[in-house]
Amino acid sequence: MGTETVDLPADPDLKKLAHDVVADGNEYAVPMLIDFYKALAELDAEDHASRSDFRINDPESDVPGEKWGDIIHALARDGPITKHSGSTDRYTFEAAGNDE
Question: 38 FRET partner, CA 20 to 30 A, in 6, 32, 61, 72?
């Protein structure tokens, strides 16, 4: 039986990223990208996410699941993720174009 593929609709930038990862021989990065996506999805799940929300259960990559909170915290220092101080650290994602 031949190999079958299905073309799924996706954002053109994501398709290009997937193509570039394979074309450049960087398949090793895929598990980390999947884990990073899971961590960032927590920012979309709630208005504010706490550092413990970024723990990845059963990580695909070699990055320990509990380290993703550290990675998000590092991005909050100089990136589009905003850390809100208070009794506990809370994070939100400031997407481009949301400067209203």
Answer: 6
Predicted confidence at residue 63, as pLDDT, reads 92
In the 8-state DSSP scheme, what is residue 82?
E
Q: What is the residue range of 55's domain?
A: 50-95
| Average model confidence (pLDDT) across the chain | 76
Residues 6+ apart with CB under 8 A from 60: 30, 31, 32, 34, 35
Structural domains counted in the chain: 1
Tell whether 54 is covered by a domain.
Answer: yes
Q: Would you say 63 and 70 are in contact if contact means Cβ atoms under 8 Å apart? A: no
- For residue 23, is it within any domain? no
Higher-confidence position of 29 and 100: 29
At 28 the pLDDT is 86
What is the helix (H) or strand (E) element at residue 95, kind and residue range? none
Q: Where are the beta strands (DSSP E) in the chain?
A: 49-50, 81-84, 90-93
